[in-house]
Amino acid sequence: MSLTVQQSASQLNNNRAKQEAESRDRFNFFDLELLKVLASSQHGNLLLSPASVKASLAMILEGAAGNSAKQVREALRLPDDERDIRQHFNNFLNSLQADSPPNVVEAANQIFLSHTITPQLQYQNILKKYYYAEIERVDFSSPGYAAQSINRWVNMLTHGQIPFLVDPGSISRNTKLMLASAMYFKGKWKNAFDLDKTTQNCFYVEVDQCFNANFMDTVKTYNYAYIGNLHAQAVELPYEGNQFSLLLLVPTKRNAVHQLIRDLSHASLHHIVSSLEATDILISLPRFSIDYSTDLIHTLNELGIHEVFSTNANLTGMVQWINYDLHVSNFLHKAKIEINEYGTVAAAATGNFSTNSFCTITNT
């Protein structure tokens, strides 16, 4: 009887672990698709924070209905149950909070709302409870002032890594609200690189084109695997406290990064991580700093999200006054990362403006 009970518990744990892995892969699918679509139209360095983008989309979803909501939910591969969606993102935001002093992880959301409108009470309460989003009133009729308020919040949350996200030109007299998401990470390597061993070497950007870069070299034991279906090597670099790590994927063939990105959309990050094994290896990692900015509307269109960006958008769950027909007019994203011998500093911010499609004023 004891054996039977243990088997049942084991099977239950295995099923639960399998469901959690499938849920993570489904949640990560959007990340890889977003990367693939962006990479197909971009040249040079590419950097983004899917977590920040998804948080921003989830807040749009909470105020959307009908086909507008359906397109966002399907692109993110989210379940139909709203309670499951909210709890999923709440758990995700909570998981980002570091409890080890060497690392700093911060994530926050904010609603910048025009003085002239009132939010739906349910929308306001849901965003505060599950997404930790607070309301800050701004005067969008004064674009300079509004941009200054938004950028001040972004600069504070990213510890100066992203000093501004919006410029006054991206704000119009019809802008009614902006949903913003910002994230910041600062982590120290569990095994720091020796500064004296950093040397200049050739970093290839094309098959026959390279430039000199500072490479950080070390020989240590890291979790490593060769991923055959990706034709790539994977290695995990942990930060102090072992709560966070950097997963590096390197194609075995030079100039095969774009093929690797395309193949990633058919891969499981859970499978990659579970394939890693402790191995003594030589790592040669370039020291670098990258920043990137873009408007993601076209990219999100390619992922199936159209209606919220059009005058047919159904965002009736956001504000109370029926004469405001809102649609998302901008979906701005900025990210920055710096990797050196001591660790990593990374930050990202996403902001989407909801603009009045048309306003009907009736004299009485």
Helix content: 25-40%
User: How many separate domains?
Assistant: 2
Could you name the CATH class of the largest domain?
Answer: Alpha Beta
SSE string, helix = H, strand = E? HHHHEHEHEEEEEHHEEHEE
Biggest sheet descriptor: 6 strands, mixed
Total beta strand runs: 11
Strand fraction band?
Answer: 25-35%
Average predicted confidence as pLDDT = 88
Radius of gyration: 22 Å
CATH architectural label of the largest domain? 2-Layer Sandwich
User: What gap, in angstroms, lies between the N and C termini?
Assistant: 80 Å
> Which fold name fills CATH's third level, the topology of the largest domain?
Antithrombin, Chain I, domain 2
Q: Please tally the helical runs, counting DSSP H or I stretches of 4 or more residues.
A: 9
InterPro entries: Serpin_dom, Serpin_fam, Serpin_sf, Serpin_sf_1, Serpin_sf_2
Biased composition (Polar residues): 1-16
Region (Disordered): 1-20
Family: Belongs to the serpin family.
